Inverse folding.
């Protein structure tokens, strides 16, 4: 029977093992970029979704919230205030991406995601929920100062990447596991006949989610049944493949193929694809970011040389 | 929560060295360890889906924790097939002569329902119309529509407008295979006096 101190040491080893901070930086930059794209996509609809004049009644959104209504839109209710709020969030996300004032910017990113999902609960999509989870995880993770605007200004190569604790990455990886496995387990706990008989994708391709719904679907039912089962197997396999060092690129490829395929055949899910790809960065290893940095440096050097010529 | 930046090249070459030293100070390290263990356990427990109808966790403290740390961890996108083949929404106004005019249904400025459809608008209308627990939102939306139309066209419009929803439901594949018809058309109109809708 291990003692408490042994147990804590084991947990400490799992959660505080040192990893290259550039992995955190990659997740931070990608998270901020996708959140910014999401904000840009929300911009034309900001009054529709978040202001008092919009589609969703503020008092009802407040009363539906459980256990409390946490939203900056409790204060920012006019059209002008909503616009100001989105502008400030855009500024915070740019700061987060640049690694300037990282912690306050990450805190605001969390406040923003909790706020808008509470204010417009009826219009929340899958990628809103992914971004909300990751906004918290980015906040409690090391910032990855090595890849930031101040480090870039100081000059490439002057900052040695630090080794930082891996707790944030562990939680991010677990989060990805939850996203995929809960979806699969849910279908096992509450079996859906269309997922079981393989007709799910056929119906899906005929729905108005699909980019090209039409009679062609009826000619490819066999292929779409194969796709229905393949998606379920992929959802089970992706987190495991991503987690194992040797197979992480296969997991990445499988996940990319599945989400890219969904984005091609389904309308307006580009942000879901980008959000999920962002989560995969938590599975990178030191050698991956090393290679990425070398590649970027080579590109910049070549571009610089071409500019000098 | 920041990891300590280890600039020592020897440390840099030996990332496997592990322990709470990776976090500044013993107390923050232990606190972070306890939190991470708790949250990891919470996430692992979240993999098990709740039964339908048990989405509300019931425990306010736990619910607050979920709210602050990223949500309720309900990942049920496309649990079953989407029922609709096509969807459209508009507001129809009848004038004194009985002639009908059409306007958009998206508040605040009554823009048309976006075509091609956008995910956010579709899920919004879908939840407003088809989720029975959200009927209070729908009733409030109808009242807002009436207020907006009244402010634009005068109070005489009350009782002479309706929100018209055109839906095409996907037919069962076995029937579609037989005759090649993919969907059946249905139109319903709603207004504050008839929030449940009337078939047309």
């Amino acid at each position: 029977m291990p003692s408490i101190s042994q147990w804590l040491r084991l947990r400490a080893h799992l959660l505080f093992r040192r990893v290259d901070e550039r992995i955190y930086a990659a997740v931070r930059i990608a998270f901020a970029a996708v959140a910014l794209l999401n904000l840009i996509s929300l911009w034309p609809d900001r009054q529709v979704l978040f202001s008092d004049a919009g589609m969703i009644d503020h008092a009802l959104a407040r009363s539906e919230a459980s256990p409390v209504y946490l939203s900056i839109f409790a204060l920012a209710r006019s059209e002008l205030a909503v616009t100001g709020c989105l502008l400030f969030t855009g500024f915070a996300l740019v700061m987060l991406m640049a690694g300037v004032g990282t912690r306050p910017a990450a805190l605001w990113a969390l406040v923003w995601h909790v706020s808008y999902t509470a204010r417009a609960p009826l219009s929340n999509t899958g990628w809103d929920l992914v971004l909300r989870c990751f906004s918290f995880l980015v906040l409690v993770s090391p910032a990855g100062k090595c890849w930031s605007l101040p480090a870039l200004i100081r000059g490439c190569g002057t900052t040695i990447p630090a080794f930082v604790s891996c707790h944030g990455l562990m939680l991010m990886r677990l989060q990805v596991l939850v996203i995929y496995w809960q979806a699969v387990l849910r279908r096992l706990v509450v079996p859906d006949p269309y997922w079981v008989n393989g007709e799910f994708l056929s119906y899906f391709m005929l729905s108005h989610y699909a980019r090209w719904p039409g009679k062609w679907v009826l000619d490819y039912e066999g292929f779409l049944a194969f796709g229905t089962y393949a998606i379920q197997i992929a959802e089970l396999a992706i987190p495991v493949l991503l987690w194992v060092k040797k197979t992480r690129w296969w997991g990445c490829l499988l996940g990319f193929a599945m989400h890219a395929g969904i984005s091609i055949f389904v309308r307006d899910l580009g942000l879901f694809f980008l959000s999920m790809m962002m989560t995969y960065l938590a599975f990178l290893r030191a050698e991956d970011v090393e290679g990425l940095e070398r590649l970027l440096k080579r590109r910049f050097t070549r571009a610089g040389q071409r500019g000098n010529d | 929560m920041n990891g300590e930046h280890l600039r020592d090249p020897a440390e840099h070459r030996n990332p496997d060295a592990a322990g709470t030293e990776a976090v500044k100070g013993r107390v923050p390290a232990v606190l972070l360890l306890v939190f991470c263990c708790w949250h990891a356990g919470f996430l692992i427990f979240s993999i098990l889906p709740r039964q339908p109808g048990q989405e509300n966790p019931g425990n306010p403290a736990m619910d607050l924790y979920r709210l602050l740390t990223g949500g309720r961890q309900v990942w049920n996108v496309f649990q079953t097939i989407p029922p609709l083949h096509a969807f459209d929404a508009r507001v129809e106004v009848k004038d004194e002569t009985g002639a009908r005019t059409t306007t958009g249904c998206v508040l605040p400025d009554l823009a048309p329902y976006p075509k091609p459809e956008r995910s956010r608008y579709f899920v919004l209308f879908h939840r407003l119309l088809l989720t029975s627990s959200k009927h209070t939102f729908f009733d409030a939306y109808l009242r807002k529509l009436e207020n907006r139309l009244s402010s634009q066209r005068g109070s005489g419009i009350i009782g002479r407008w309706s929100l018209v929803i055109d839906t095409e439901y996907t037919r069962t594949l076995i029937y579609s295979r037989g005759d090649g018809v993919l969907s059946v058309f249905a139109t319903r109109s709603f207004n504050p006096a008839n929030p449940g809708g009337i078939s047309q």
Q: What stands out?
A: The first strand of chain B starts at residue 84 and ends at 94. Chain B has two domains: 9-68, 84-199. The two ends of chain B are 61 Å apart (CA to CA).
